[in-house]
Amino acid sequence: MTGEPLLKVDGLVKEFPLGRRLLGVGEIGAVKAVDGVSFELARGETLGIVGESGCGKSTVAKTLVRLEEPTAGTATFEGEDIFAMSPKRLRKLRREIQIIFQDPYGSLNPRMTVGDIVTEAWDIHRDTVPRRERKKRAGELLERVGLDASMMNRYPHQFSGGQRQRIGIARALTLRPKIIVCDEPVSALDVSVQAQVMNLLEEIQDDFGLSYIFIAHDLSVVRHISDRVGVMYLGRIVEIGDEKAIYDEATHPYTQALLSAAPNPDPDEAAAAKANRIVLEGDVPNPADPPSGCNFRTRCWKADEKCAEEDPALIDRFGHGHPAACHYAEVRHPVA
Amino acid sequence: MTGPALEPDVTLSATAPVLEVRDLSVEFRTPHGTVNAVNGVSFALDRGETLAILGESGSGKSVTAQAVMDLIDSPPGFVTGGEILFHGQDLLANRHLHHQVRGQSITMIFQDALSALNPVFTVGWQIGEQLRVHRGMSRRDARARVIELMELVKIPYAAARVDDYPHEFSGGMRQRVMIAMALALDPEVLIADEPTTALDVTVQAQVMALLEDLQRDLGMSLILITHDLGVVTDMAHRVSVMYAGRVVEEGDVYSVFKNPAHPYTEGLMSSMPKATHGDQKLVPITGAPPSLANIPSGCPFHPRCPYMRPDTCVNEHPPLREVVAGRRSACHFAEEVFS
């Protein structure tokens, strides 16, 4: 991937107020859900963002399409800062960046037919597809995502979870975006259906020339679909690099623990993987009261005084070829 | 371990499996029609063994467990056939025995620990309730035993946390509270229904390690109900794969996953992305699981099956039969899949 990145996110911060004072004057403290996240997305690339619940990965997704307003930071798309756009300009941006959600039940309006759901964006962006062509084009899109064009007059409840996720994908494609943010798109699906939707996402990526930001908690799913992967913990990216670098040569203790904790279904690899498992102590700390220094030090077997005092920057300290936010980053090869 | 105080006229077999389910069927009669949730499920569980029941949503795996625990609301749910044998005694034929056994000799933990716990009582009170009711312990003795149980499931500062309420615990710690509660009466069988599904992967690893340690130390048998193939290889000795309310394949975990004898199991394996390999092609199963109100004729898997032959598979229901020693499959062409 060479040349100018399609999207460049720099220092993204999102705080949520913890509560308000009586009469709504002033706020009482704040939780930093996202705490200085930076990354680049190249044209045609899939960037995976993986992490456990509460790490801020979905908040990153939502701020990128301005469903949440960021507290600080910039996101440069084709030379323009998404976070500074006027509402009018933002409407144009929606053609370029779309999102699909985890919940195929909650993200489709139950009172709209599938045809209306797919063509709705064309009613808003009127210059994109002429009215008389809309039905035909919607049918083509439905066929492309593996549904039947004749299903256009049905309602969401008449479809299975996997089919609904296909409808969500068709809707995201209507304005021919350059980027689709996928927020846990297959987590609600059964294994046998999950693979169908992942294959579909890969096919349409080639057909439509899409870049993906693919957010998930499932390490196997993220590896399968991503070119590069960022690992998040407590609002920060702790390690980022090529898919192979992260999965085969992880250097951050959290990445290593996360990878080793995921049960391996391969019967030939399971025993060795389990014998070498790192079982972390305790839980993720409360994000309203994060530890001093390194966020991960309260669960880390390498932590010492330096980790309590000095917040490790996300840099490639020891020439591993990809950055990690750890004072003591070193390669640990997974057992397989 | 002390067993439950059973009535003297009930003789429990020492040689039979701890728990055996034979040809169990459960249906739900709803205004929209009958849902055939479980259709002739059989399995046996030996002492100290971990049996995984693997299936996707709607496969009947949880309903099977609920029938064993007599937790099915009736109506609309009805156990329409089969036997549930505990040490050779049929619990379905002896309701009194069933109610003595469940909750004491056979206990269960659930996926969602927060809603399984009562929010207005302390965890100590909830764990101790059974000790006071079933063992007749005094409050003081029960409390002391509760702290021991909380230490057994590795809840830090157990003595200080015994008076905390469920909402004061994290998800992983709540699941430990559930496990302590399930262990209070020294069960012989623990049924864990998706025990780690709601947990993050690093916390899941903690709870899986705990369950394994407890099983080894206490000599329990474990039924692990899950949709996660990784959890099965990680924890179970044997696996029963369920589809549309039936067991479609059964055997030891290594050989079933290494060389499946049913097209559904094979399809599950080829649908799973692996964290250890980047560029692997996913071969999904086509279509979606059937509605249990409208199960396909013949073999329920035939509309999605690459081995399907129209006359045989559409018309004839394949029984669960032995393919090689220790391996059973409910497929007309199991040998073809297996080889």
From TrEMBL, chain B:
Keywords: ATP-binding, Cell membrane, Membrane, Nucleotide-binding, Transport. Belongs to the ABC transporter superfamily. The keyword Nucleotide-binding applies. Residues 21-269 form the ABC transporter domain. InterPro entries: AAA+_ATPase, ABC_Ni/Peptide_Import, ABC_transporter-like_ATP-bd, ABC_transporter-like_CS, Oligopep_ABC_C, P-loop_NTPase. Gene3D superfamilies: P-loop containing nucleotide triphosphate hydrolases. It comes from Phytoactinopolyspora halophila. SUPFAM superfamilies: P-loop containing nucleoside triphosphate hydrolases (SSF52540). Its main location: membrane. Pfam families: ABC_tran, oligo_HPY. GO terms for cellular component: plasma membrane. One of its GO terms (biological process) is peptide transport. It comes from the Bacteria. This is Methionine ABC transporter ATP-binding protein. It is a peripheral membrane protein. It is found in: Cell membrane.
